[in-house]
Amino acid sequence: MILDLMIWAPIISGLIILMIGKNYGSLSYSLSIFSSSLVFVISLYALSMYDSSQTGIQFELITSWIERFDINYHLGVDGISFPLILLTTFITPIVLLTSRTSEKSNLHQYLASFLILEGLMIGVFSALDAFLFYVFWEAMLIPMFIIIGIWGGKNRVYATIKFFLYTFLGSVFMLIAIIYLYIQTGSYSIFDFYNIDLSRTEQILIFLAFLFAFAVKIPMWPVHTWLPDAHVEAPTGGSVILAAILLKMGGYGLLRFSLPITPNASSELSMVMVVLSLIAIIYIGMVALSQTDMKKLIAYSSVAHMGFVTLGTFVVFLDHEIASLEIMNLAISGAMIQMISHGLISGALFLCIGVMYDRVHSREIDDYGGVALMMPRFAGLMVFFALANAALPGTSGFVGEVLVILASLKVNFWIALLSGTTLVIGAAYTLWMIKRVIFGDVTNEKINDIQDVSAIELIPLMILAIMVLAMGVYPEPLMNLMYVSINDLSKLVFLGAGI
Amino acid sequence: MMLEYSLIALLSPLFGGIMAAFLGKSFGKNFVNFVTIIGVSISFVLSCIIALEILESSAVINQNIYTWLNIGDQSFHIGLLIDNLTASMMVVVTFVSLMVHVYTIGYMYDDPGYHRFFSYISLFTFSMLSLVMSNNFLQLFFGWEAVGVMSYLLIGFWYTKESAIKANLKAFIVNRVGDLSLILGIGIIFSITGSLDYYAVFSNSQEIAQTELLLTSTLTVSALTAACILLFGGAMGKSAQMPLHVWLPDSMEGPTPISALIHAATMVTAGVFLLARMSPLFELSTTALSFVLIIGATTALFTGILGLIQNDIKRVVAYSTLSQLGYMVAAAGVSAYSASLFHLMTHAFFKALLFLAAGSVIVALHHEQDIRKMGGLKNKLPITYVTSLIGSLALIGFPGFSGFFSKDALIEAIGHADIIGSGFAYASVLIGVFITALYTFRLFFTVFHGALDEHHHDVKESPLSITLPLVLLAIPSVIIAWPTVGPMVFGSYFTTAISQPDAYQIFGYEFTSAYGFLIHAFSSPVIYIALFGVATAYILYIQKPSILHDETYKSSFIYRLLDNKYYFDDLYENVFAKQARNIGDLLWKVGDIKTIDNFIVNGTAYRIGNIANRIKGIQTGYIYHYALMMILGLAIFLAWTILDLGGAS
Q: Would you place residue A78 in the very low, low, confident or very high pLDDT band (cuts 50, 70, 90)?
């Protein structure tokens, strides 16, 4: 019930705003914030009801949807999906709160798109029926497509088409895999998929089909090039949701589908996955170094950080002799924490860039310099998030990366060393940007007239900063929420892969 | 009680720093310095109480405060380990920090970032304390990076100054190279012992020693040696050992009080602290020890030489710090951790003193830092002059001063050692003694003696908040070693914390009393070498300065080599940093844009469009074209069926 409410409440309020909001900009703004905050409160209530010591699915809801094809409306959460739902309900009100800092045509449509998107995203994370999952997964593209296509920058048409084709093409393969699995099992339940015996070839083909959908979303090298374009053209709120939540669906998909359905293929192709992850971490890190557009830089940095998610997901399979549940739990925990943390940090950084863009109307690093002189409070926050992005201990950015590095080191020293280079490269591209944007003397006279952040800009950033700090200083509560499910997943996969 | 005291000692600077950061702007300067100084004072007093308590009872506190992360059986904690080593570090850190806080009131009074500065130095103190008070590797890494960040923020404190923000970026990234090494070392330990608690790891050190680390399928190395060398890599970053030393001289772009606090007395000694803390591991690997020794000795000599030709007053002192850190590291390399720590302590006092004295000169001369424009300040700045003299004598190891005891002890230990590299190290540190005396008194004579520059007739001695810390630091610079050298270096003071052979084995010398040690030192060459260095400085900079104005000297290869600091900066900036950017550019433009985007992504779209364009030609719109096609198709279909091309018999 509670999941139902979290999915449909934002969608329905989005539809209401769409219908009545045309002449009531302020009202729809307040309404959108109210309903998204309400969803957040409901998710907190759900958190208080959630029993993290219990294995399996909670808040389960199952009713028949399309009987002819055995498709069910089947929802439920576990320790892997629930944190991502919390991230969604947490980030959405923040995005909506900052939606009025820049002038927008048809504000109510903008707000409604985000609310509908929120419901669909929660749907993706809570769907336990593969077909339902696919419906949410694809439906989510529509509001995002609209957000970038209507409120985006100059080159938005190219970016939206690229975004749409990339992700759509990826999902088609996933649909084929889902239908194949349905034919094999006679059910669309994801859990029924876990229990079937698939031949080696079948596993590999299904793994690749899913991978194509998820790799585009994460995004992994080399299917990542839609992301910088989409970020650059997207309005601030779109970038925040894109970086904070949409990318996580790929990582979530790997954990929910790829590993448990095709454990042997995951294990067999782990070397490929690890190499692609390392390319994402190192190659993309280097690419980020030479960006001149702040949004592109953070977009590339996202790809590099998501490399830790895929590395953590697959590194344990590299060496069957060393592989153990402990290492897998360590690595998967790292991947999960990295996803949540990246959601907070990259979201915050995109908000920061938005704050500056609203004042100077440029994203070019060279147009800035000396922002700290004019906006000291903002500068403090931006430097904080930059340091978190560079994985500073005490911030959430450190936790996920260090767990993945520690797990990798147990498997192979060189992988740990290569992934660890992010400590240097990540610091270099992030802080070099800070040096050129925040510090230094004012060279662009536009900077001389800018005002420090207003309360409505400051509050979301402060909330994010507190979360980033809290998760860095005391990640145990989050871990506690996830551990049982991660452990179950590891056991299931090990059993399946015969390790 | 001790645990509560330690916690308060740890957290009170944090509290002060937060108050200063958030309320400083509205409550004014007096509030800021009051709240931060109270915070650090509490911490200092409690540190002293703890140190005395531990001295009496030799009790050790090892207590987890909370569980940071729990993944099944794998737990990571935040906790405190208070033993002799921690307590001494706490006293040194909080004392120097307190002095610097007081000094800052005068030094930064007119700076618009006053409250920000106080907040940073208090937060730094907290970070440093959490580093030294940790009972596990993870929290060590927390503190390690936290002090690095505070250093980053403080070097770039004047953030509109291009040289400052270049220096702080450089410092952070060079340190991150060390930190990468450190975390890998920690990772190896974790992968073998499954724990990150110091005591749990140290009690399993034999297990690490017996494990081999697989580098390739055939090549293995001892996991212990690898872990120790990687841990030391972290120390090389923070303690600025060659070749990761390049950030420290540039860090002088920050305000002088932090040069004293962070880049002389405390943070840069974290590497030395690490070596001492990890002594149970290092003692099991002579390879790692030799590595430590050689790096330390090289740094001690070669960075000292660079100090000879610097003209910025702070940079001379900075190179001196590099060189002294080299001494401490080299001492740890010959297992003389106690001597190394003892030098750390005395150095903290006299080097902080020298920096603050340099700052006093800089303030008096209205932010002039070039020593070629100084001279004859002896009578204008009497307190600064006397305290500088004390600091300089302590630095060169003049008999009776604190630096004498600490440096002499560690040189003896290096001379007595016989591991690989000890011959080279002994020669280096002996030459280093001469170099130290030469650059120290070059600076001293040039600044305070000679002719007074005519612009400087109106120079006045600095205010009390600046001179008071100078005097308070000068006192321990002279006397601190007399009562402490016996128990700390030769006695059992550190035995609960450090694993090292007994004193006679390290030093080859039976300690009786500090006075006996002083007398004994006259039979070794060290004192005479130092005095020879002072005499040389006197001749070169007072008697016959003309020698150095010789053109052939300035154009010589050696001078250029030194002037370019052995070309390390060029290597890093023009080769590593530049090439990284070029590679990034290349990967972006060729890999992402050209190959993936233009060829594969847009190329596919283009080709599909192209094919569609051609196919489009078929759709002419003329009915007879379509009719023709229909007839042709029908004919082929019929032919197929009639002639049975499908093979359906």
A: very high
User: Which of A164, A289, A378 to probe the B interface (max B CBs under 10 A)?
Assistant: A289
By the 8 A CB rule, do B87 and B43 touch?
Answer: no
On chain A, the residues whose CB falls within 8 A of the CB of B20 are none
Q: Are B180 and A423 in contact (CB under 8 A)?
A: yes
Nearest CA in chain B to A395: B142
Q: How far apart are CA A451 and CA A470, in angstroms?
A: 29
Question: Each residue of B273-301: pLDDT tens digit?
Answer: 999 999 999 988 888 999 999 999 999 98
Lowest-pLDDT range of A258-267, B392-401, B558-567: B558-567
Q: Tell me which residue has tokens 């759509």.
A: A168
Distance CA A83, CA A244 (A): 13
Question: What pLDDT, in 10s, does the model give residues A422-443?
Answer: 999 999 999 999 998 998 888 8
pLDDT-derived band at B90 (thresholds 50, 70, 90) equals very high
pLDDT digits (tens, 9 = 90+) for B413-438: 888 888 888 888 888 888 989 989 88
Q: Which residues of B touch A331 (CB under 8 A)?
A: none
Cis amide bond preceding A222, omega within 30: yes
Instruction: Tokens for B325, please give them.
Output: 């850190």
- Secondary structure (DSSP) of A445-482: GGGGGPPPPPHHHHHHHHHHHHHHHHHHH--HHHHHHH
Q: Kindly report, residue by residue over A379-396, the tens digit of the pLDDT.
A: 999 999 999 999 999 899
Single out the residue of B505, B504, B501, B491 nearest to residue B84, CA to CA. B491
Q: Cβ separation of A287 and B591 shorter than 8 Å? A: yes
| DSSP SS3 for A224 | coil
Whether B257 and B103 have beta carbons less than 8 Å apart is answered as: yes
User: Are B373 and B507 within 8 A, CB to CB?
Assistant: no
The distance in angstroms from the start CA to the end CA of chain B is 101
Taking CA–CA distances from A229, the nearest residue in chain B reads B597
Residues of chain A in contact with residue B190, where contact means CB-CB under 8 angstroms, are 406, 409-410
- Minimal CA separation from A66 to chain B, in Å: 36
- For residues B40 and B12, give the distance between their C-alpha atoms in angstroms, rounded to a whole number: 7
Task: Decide the pairing of beta strands B61-71 and B74-82.
Answer: antiparallel
What is d(CA B416, CA B424) in angstroms, rounded to the nearest whole number?
Answer: 13
3-state secondary structure at position B394:
helix
Instruction: Name the residue type at position B227.
Output: A
Cα A225 from Cα A33, distance rounded (Å): 33
The residue written with tokens 């030489």 in the block is B305
Q: How far is B18 from chain A, CA to nearest CA, in Å?
A: 13
Alpha helices, DSSP H, located in A361-421? 371-374, 376-389, 396-411, 413-420
- At residue B283, φ and ψ (nearest 5 deg) are -60, -20
Q: Which amino acid belongs to residue A474?
A: Y
The CA distance from A62 to the nearest CA of chain B, in Å, is 32
> Could you give the ipTM of this predicted complex?
0.91
Closest CB from B67, B179, B187 relative to A416: B187
Alpha-carbon distance B529 to A77, whole Å?
A: 75
* DSSP conformation class of A188: -
Q: Helix, strand or coil for residue A14?
A: helix
CB–CB contacts below 8 A, A to B? 139
- Which residues contact residue B383 at a Cβ distance below 8 angstroms, ignoring those fewer than 6 apart? B461, B462, B467, B470, B471
d(CA B318, CA B174): 17
Fill in the amino acid letter for A165: L
CB A462 within 8 A of CB A455: no
* Three-state secondary structure call for residue A338: helix
**Residue located via tokens 């929290």:** B139
**pTM of the prediction?**
0.90
What are the CA-CA distances from residue B126 to residues B5, B14, B76, B137, B533 (Å)?
A: 14, 5, 21, 17, 40
